[in-house]
């Protein structure tokens, strides 16, 4: 039987010595779905993302893409599978330009190893135009001259260079103004409309609630709820996070 999920995590467990950062976590992701991955500090969200991206390997458990088991052994493998992430700490190079940042580590070169800057600039501009609409800065602007929201858009443009099916955003708006946060929200919705699936991690539950189709809630490394937004409320999601699932209803998992 064909699964409704193109991506699946099955019994993912990650231990760091005595710390069980992820404890037997299973879930699936549908095409063009925005899933909020939420939970308190230290719940295990970033650890889970790092395994999906091949930065860390699970202690136990497997990932499946289109029903086939995949060994995500490195971020390069993740990207080749159509999975990419933008992390909490942005990892942009402030003194390098927008185009240099977008192509960092994946420069286009000709047969003699010469960088194809003209093509890279055009491609960078195209990606940014889709994300930023009419407010695209010159692609040779140093990133340190950009606002927080613009930096976030550059980081997302970089992630979209590869053909992305699953984009993971870990706290994309934590350092942004209200207007900038709204823009990232609009951008995420636009990506969904293009058929991209998004795992969205955020601490501002009200903001996440407005954006997502479904919630996966973690507490102390365990998945305590996996629930469609239409079957829950902002209050219930907050209560689940705060209580660590103690108020949980058995149907949530
Ligand atoms: N490399 C590591 N070595 C040891 N322990 C780690 C490591 N990475 C994460 N942990 C631990 O695993 C647990 C989960 O951390 P993680 O960063 O995944 O949480 P999080 O849900 O992303 O939290 P936050 O909301 O604060 O970003 C924490 O107890 C953390 O201290
Ligand atoms: Mg985190």
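-> sequence recovered:
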């Amino acid at each position: 039987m064909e699964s409704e999920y193109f991506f699946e995590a099955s019994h993912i467990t990650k231990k760091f010595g005595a710390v069980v950062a992820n404890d037997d976590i299973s879930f699936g992701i549908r095409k063009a779905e925005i899933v909020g991955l939420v939970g308190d500090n230290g719940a295990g969200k970033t650890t889970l993302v790092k395994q999906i991206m091949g930065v860390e390997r699970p202690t136990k458990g497997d990932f499946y893409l289109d029903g086939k088991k995949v060994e995500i052994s490195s971020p390069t493998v993740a990207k080749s599978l159509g999975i990419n992430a933008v992390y909490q700490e942005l990892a942009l190079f402030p003194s390098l330009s927008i185009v240099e940042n977008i192509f960092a580590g994946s420069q286009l070169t000709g047969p003699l190893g010469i960088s194809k800057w003209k093509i890279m600039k055009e491609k960078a501009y195209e990606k940014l135009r889709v994300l930023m609409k009419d407010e695209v800065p010159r692609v040779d602007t140093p990133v340190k001259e950009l606002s927080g929201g613009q930096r976030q858009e550059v980081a997302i443009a970089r992630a979209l260079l590869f053909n992305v099916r699953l984009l993971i955003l870990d706290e994309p708006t934590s350092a942004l103004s209200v207007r900038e946060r709204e823009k990232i929200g609009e951008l995420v919705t636009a990506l969904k409309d293009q058929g991209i699936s998004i795992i969205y991690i955020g601490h501002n539950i009200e903001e996440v609630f407005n954006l997502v189709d479904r919630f996966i809630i973690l507490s102390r490394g365990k998945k305590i709820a996996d629930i469609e937004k239409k079957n829950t409320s902002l209050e219930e999601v907050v209560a689940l996070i705060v209580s660590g699932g103690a108020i949980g209803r058995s149907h949530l998992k």
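Residues 16, 19, 21, 39, 41-47 surround adenosine-5'-triphosphate (ligand 1) (CB under 6 Å).
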